[in-house]
Specification:
Elements: E1 8-9, H1 12-17, H2 22-29, H3 67-71, E2 76-80, E3 83-85, E4 95-97
Antiparallel strand pairs: 1-3, 2-3, 2-4
Length: 108
């Protein structure tokens, strides 16, 4: 989940061993492990939830960013039978379901 939107879901073992979304890949690369000596941080910072960009909220931090990522929130696709993810590549036009609109939080 990134800025209140699910970006990838599936069986835990598959998501952790074969992440499909760049944010999931970044989280795992930034997590400590006994095998990995250096952590790879995700570049940039999260946007304010009250100031989300019109497209994919992860786009400013994503190395796979495309022009379409800045225009609209990507829809889910199914690269494998039991994994859903938001697309980051042009070949992801085979859509499974739309990402629901998340209401923006109000100031407290």
């Amino acid at each position: 989940m990134y800025t209140g939107r699910i970006v990838e879901e599936g069986p835990v073992q598959k998501v952790l061993t074969s992440p499909q979304h760049p944010y999931t890949q970044g989280l795992l690369a930034a997590s400590p492990s006994l095998e990995r000596k250096a952590l790879t941080p995700i570049p940039g910072t999260e946007p304010q939830l009250t100031e989300l960009p019109p497209g994919c909220a992860f786009a400013p931090r994503c190395s796979f960013r495309r022009a379409e990522c800045d225009r609209a929130v990507p829809e889910f696709r199914q690269p494998e039978p039991d994994i859903l993810r938001q697309p980051t590549q042009p070949y992801t036009r085979d859509l499974l379901a739309a990402v629901p609109e998340i209401p923006r939080p109000t100031q407290v």
